[in-house]
Amino acid sequence: ESDTASEISFQFHKHKKTPSTGSHSSDMASVSSVSGSVLSVYSGDFGSVDAQGTVEFALDYDEKNREFQVHVSQCKDLAVVDEKKGRSDPYVKTYLLPDKARMGKRKTSVKKRTVNPIYNEVLRYKIEKMVLLIQKLNLSVWHNDPLGRNSFLGEIEVDLASWDWSNRKLNWYPLKPRSLSAVNGVDHRGVMNLSIKYVPPGSLGKCPKNPPTGEVHIWVKDVKDLLQLRPSGVDSFVKCYVLPDTSKKSYQKTRVIKRDPNPIFNHTIVYDGFHTEDLKDACVELTVWDHEKLTNHFLGGIRLGLGTGLSYGVSVDWMDSTQEEVAFWQEMMSAANEWIEGLLPLRSL
């Protein structure tokens, strides 16, 4: 059914607080190998004001230092957030899209009690020009609330591929409401086509391959519409862990597929050592990465489990499966020895 396969033994050792000598099992409170949440562009927006006003900025690329520079000058006539006090405390935030996780956000200082803030600050990104030209700049203005209940005041999105790079002057641009492309498309990281199967212990009768313990089979078929981080394309591979174990024993990966936004992996992984009750506390984490010489870049992933937030009674941040992922895992649990096929969207983890 697949051209590559790997089979490894996996034991949870639920009652051990620390691994014994030579054991590959990690403590139950282990966190995922992919840590840190990436908030969406609009995370923390608690306001309901309409976008208004303008922002003055200039763009430049420093060839010598290989640096993209956003010179944020000022804003005018911003919306008032606190009408009782007649105040807004605005700041400017920027992202490079579509992969905001890779380059991160930049933001100016906060100017208090003004709807006409003056910044004169430069936000900088170390990035190759060729990579920059396949990005979009999302520049947004926010009211800063001391309790973190920030309010969106407006934005502008710039397609850097069509930007006039000879234009280094400060220019005024009208702030707009949230763009549908940013709201709906910013976290689109592609979709994974896979099948999973649970083989309970002793369920195959007199079959020679009847497993003494349960097995989870994961068949990674292909991925479509991966983020393109550079003009030459993406060199992708898939990592797999069965959490809470993040040891080398649990870690498996596919081969690297080069320069293809729609890679076909056709790779099967088999984890044994399962008991049926373990399925409530385990989580299969599949992540897709772009392979480069110095470092690999996270493209997106899925987590298959019940999404309860708990693993063997311990609160963990990786037991956060979406409704689609939970339904997929539950279908596998209820259909022993059957392949369950699914198409699941990749997401930030």
From TrEMBL:
Pfam families membership: C2
Broad class of where this protein is predominantly found: membrane
SMART domains per UniProt: C2
Molecular function terms, GO-annotated: neurexin family protein binding
Stretch list, region Disordered: 1-29
Record InterPro entries: C2_dom, C2_domain_sf, SYTL1-5_C2B
An example Gene Ontology CC term for this record: plasma membrane
Domain C2: 51-173, 188-319
Keywords (A to Z) from UniProt: Cell membrane, Exocytosis, Membrane, Repeat
UniProt entry tagged with the keyword Protein biosynthesis: no
One record GO biological process: exocytosis
Source domain of life: Eukaryota
Subcellular location: Cell membrane
Protein name: Synaptotagmin-like protein 2
Species whose genome carries this gene: Rhinopomastus cyanomelas (Common scimitarbill)
